[in-house]
Amino acid sequence: xxxxxxxxxxxxxxxxxxxxxxxxxxxxxxxxxxxxxxxxxxxxxxxxxxxxxxxxxxxxxxxxxxxxxxxxxxxxxxxxxxxxxxxxxxxxxxxxxxxxxxxxxxxxxxxxxxxxxxxxxxxxxxxxxxxxxxxxxxxxxxxxxx
Length: 146
Hints:
By secondary structure, the protein is an alpha+beta fold. It has one domain (25-143): CATH 2.40.50.110. Helix content is 29%, strand content 35%. The chain has helices spanning 2-22, 66-71, 83-98, and strands spanning 26-33, 35-42, 46-53, 73-79, 103-113, 135-143. Strand 2 and strand 3 (46-53) form a beta hairpin.
């Protein structure tokens, strides 16, 4: 009996350590912010989700990414084989925005998109006049109930 629980605990520990080893730049960067704008569009071979957040002036850690610091945007691109990430984040973002609930946002601090056009070079990002790119790489949203 002990061996069974020990094996399960050891597996869980290894899994968590393994996940964290590859996710060192993934951080809950913004906490208790509101989603002001949700933009979802087809960029040719990629679908693109961009969120404009209400206040990015008090991140939990320092970061360097012009579009996020200047315009308060974070984004996610996903090709045809990876649409579940887009759908999950889009659903959570729209639910939070519709109910005016605060969110916590996890991003990859090492991923900052500063390109003003999508990968196919067919579509200019919607707010490219104020900045270039979709910002820090969005990894997840936690909707808070307050």
